[in-house]
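Researcher: Let's walk through a ligand-bound prediction step by step. First, I give you the protein sequence. Second, the SMILES string for 2-acetamido-2-deoxy-beta-D-glucopyranose. Third, you return the three-dimensional complex as structure tokens. Ready?
Model: Ready.
Researcher: Here are steps one and two:
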Amino acid sequence: MIFRPGGLTRRDAILLLVGASSMHIWSLLFSQHDYPSDQSIVINNHASQDHVVERITLTTTVVEPARTQTRIQTQTATVTKLAAAKSTTKSRAVAPFAELPSTEVLAHAPGWTLFRDVYMSNGTIFIVADENARKNIPEIRMMTSTGLPAENTPENIASREPLPENMQIITPEEAKRRWVTVDPDGKYPDLNRVWSVEGNTLLFNDPTQFLRHYYHLVAELFFGVQAFWHGAFSEPLSTRDALSPTSSIHYSQTHPAVPPIHRAIFAHSNADGWRDNPGFNRYFLRAAFPSLIVEHQEDWEDRIRSTRPKPGQIQTGERAWHFPMVLLTDRSAAHRGWMCGSNTQRTASEAWDYMRLNGKLRGMHVGGWWAPVREAIWRFAGADEGLKPVLDKARQRDRKEEDQSYFGPETGVVRGLGSSAPALDKAKVADIGAEHQKKLPMPSKVVITYISRQSARNRKLIPEDHALLIESLKELVDRKNKERAKFFKDANKVLGFGDDDRKRATDEAGGVPLEWELNVMEAEKLTHDQQIQAAARTTIMLGVHGNGLTHLVFMKPTRASTVIEMFYPGGFAHDYYWTSRALGMSHFAVWNDTHRTYPDKPNVDYPKGFQENSIPAHGPTVAQLIEDRVAMKL
Ligand SMILES: *[C@@H]1O[C@H](CO)[C@@H](O)[C@H](O)[C@H]1NC(C)=O
Ligand SMILES: *[C@@H]1O[C@H](CO)[C@@H](O)[C@H](O)[C@H]1NC(C)=O
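Model: Step three, the predicted complex:
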């Protein structure tokens, strides 16, 4: 391979420096300097007949966070300005003459792997690691697969085992051989053919099979992403907090912000492949991540093709893309894990449980790690639950959060995982349980939302049972509201207030019965905003097993927050059960006139009748279950 000196002219070198200095100015204006990461740069001048080549080598040194700021402000020379700029940009692009950084696996659970400095060339993910570092790289089949659609046949399972063309681990020497041009005369520095895709990237290796569903995209894929990402970049809990299920930290919904995710790449899906028919996936993605750049299969193909060596052409050498920070998810790999594969069948559960076991899951009993997404959606939908925190903040004149730029330069640092993980006794790490939900405040109003599937194509209740169910729920709500009215009447009589003086009666008497409300929701008749608003107000979400129950991820956590899922008797699936519990809420499976809950949950089963339209549900049983649950008898 011949290095051509004309490849980088003096003009290019100057532009490089100008670009880097303006990055420096940018970083001075906007950086927060929270995290240690500094790169010093040495520039040597090598003169040749016609060209001057600036040699730039990058070395990484770690400095104390407090000192970063000082260093930046006192540096003056162009050379050191470059270094300062580098020290504050999150995504460390690989400069043309830089040595290629080796790959680090910052966090890993089956199907969920957070990489720093990983590469892609010709469609293959390359992990660069020397013999020693290789020991810390997880098994490839626990990170990725061929990305083919899943079926439950031995042939199909085998066809999803990853191949060398999907992922490889190579040595730094091999990476250099592939992607770096070395001048045989040693006159010029090594020039790499690696281009950085800056920022934080989500790389989804899944086919459209499970993307085009509201539940799978939002309550499984992004639910897992949020648990993993928020967990990875959160400070680890103290050992004491991690082991104590009653620590107040497990009840907190406010945690320091984590670095933004800049880009999502659906490697095996076109633009249509992740958009569900009711349109909730696009609504969710834009509302929760308004600045997220979405790339599709076509874009990934662009990147593959532009790094594919063309036979018959002049050999210019292989190119590669460099990703400074990537969360790679793979559904098949998640199913190879114990938690997902043998226990919950939910890919997100691998991400969630890994962070829990490492003392990194924030606000476990109230979905604190999920709160940023939940609140973003509430606010987008115009739900009071989302507007109130923003108004409160405005009143306190605490605008700090709103001023933060999505593309700001803060660097994400992962602590408390891998070799720095504290030695937690995994069997003793706190888990969720209904008893912890009892410590939450009661809702100000009990709102029952029955998500009806009666106008769906399949999985409906027997029409008479549906009618009786609504009748029973109405009876319950009316009776509760009458009890409340009677309470005020009696209290006012005793206290000598006017008949309607509820506020004074409440203040003086206390223990006021709550107001109840029933919503029978036919999702297809409501706008997206209306559905989210309804979910945000819901205390008890009730429905036949199905996609509509996905809205549970936007319920507000309270003492009584409960999901009641009706199945054909004998049937059960973990989807909404696991998801409810992962947010600290209770879940009951109803089989006509019986119900089951954790830890006495049924086994997964899809008996005949599961998908059909004559599912029995005994209304009075469901109403009694709700009454007992709100009274904390269950
Ligand atoms: C690039 O990838 C394609 C598809 O996997 C493969 O057939 C081809 O051999 C690869 N080319 C090189 C040079 O690795
Ligand atoms: C459902 O429960 C009710 C009340 O116990 C009972 O009368 C009815 O026969 C049950 N339906 C089925 C299909 O088991």
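Researcher: And what stands out?
Model: Residues 38-80 form one domain. The chain has 22 helices and 19 strands.
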